[in-house]
Amino acid sequence: MTNMPDDAIDSIVYVIDDDSAMRQAVETLLDSVDLTVKLFASPTEFLAMDLPEVPSCVVLDVRLKGQNGLQVQEQIARQLGLPVILMTAHGDIPMSVRAMKTGAVDFLPKPFRGQDMVEAVTAALEVDRERRAKEQSAVALRKQYESLTPRERKIMELVAAGLLNKQIATELNLSEITVKLHRGQAMKKMKSASFADFVLKAEALGLVKGPAGSAARD
User: Fold this and answer.
1) What is the mean pLDDT of the chain?
2) Domains by residue range for the chain, with CATH
């Protein structure tokens, strides 16, 4: 098992299998392509861990002592959101279909080709990188929005809904110049270099109830 401090690791593959020989085989394979691997003999042991916030995936055996691997996969997806690669020596088509429907990124029969496992893990880690990037972007966007004043938030909502500056001014009992100033401040705080980006961010925040109209830029 690779021994590195968590803050020095850029990704982790968690292998859960009650067969120690299989755990070691998967670790040796993935270590050969410079992937950090952590091994677990049971899902209970894995789920009790505090996992570092780095791109990760799980390689999980379907047949586990006293536990159903498909149910464990669903639990991991629900609680942790991590992509799961299932492996089994006793797979069938209905099992693989259920696994894929509940979010497994791959289903590998034992014995599997080393290249197939490496490719499945590489794809799963990329899926988790993209998920984490989207989550981080959403958090940053929400923080930007929370920095707006109540008036700036309202103007952002009305702009994204397609109202012209003069319509917003009437709606809020303000002058057009004041509306433009508030809109400019809101765009600056939202880090929107363009009007289109400003509207897209409003949509991402759920401020637009329907299709946005074509608001005036001036």
Assistant:
1) 88
2) 6-136 (3.40.50.2300), 147-204 (1.10.10.10)
